[in-house]
Amino acid sequence: MELQISTPALLFSAITLMMLAFTNRFLAVASLIRGLHKKFLENPDHEIIIDQIHNLKRRLSMIKYMQLCGVLSFFLCVVCMYLIFMEIQPAADYVFIASMLTLLISLGISLVEIFISNQALKLELQDMENIFEKRKSGLDFWFKKEKNDE
């Protein structure tokens, strides 16, 4: 099968949309970090904040590599199209394969980052549950005390 110039060109829209999604993730994480920084200045000993900091550092690093692989995939698509245009078919085939592999790696990193993101949300939910349980047990203590006073 001979690779046509339209084949790598088809990836342009997919890679562009993927890069847009990765940029949106980066902006969301940046916003979370800024908000967390304010919380940290208010209460630096709160354990959930420290856990979230580690989580966000991992996510930020992963987003960087996702974007790097996405840009590399895009770059390799352009090189592939140039090689096809110059009629250097064997090299174009290998470059296209490399482009697809970097795209696959980028998507794989994205999948792992999604799981890490979910873990961060679980930390927040667990913290809220812990606070609720503490308040509930504190209220139970006061209700028991009032019954004993009667």
Automatic annotation (TrEMBL):
Protein name as annotated: DUF2721 domain-containing protein
Q: Which residues cross the membrane?
A: 12-33, 65-85, 91-116
- Superkingdom: Bacteria
InterPro entries, per the entry: DUF2721 (IPR021279)
> Sorted alphabetically, which keywords does the UniProt record give?
Membrane, Transmembrane, Transmembrane helix
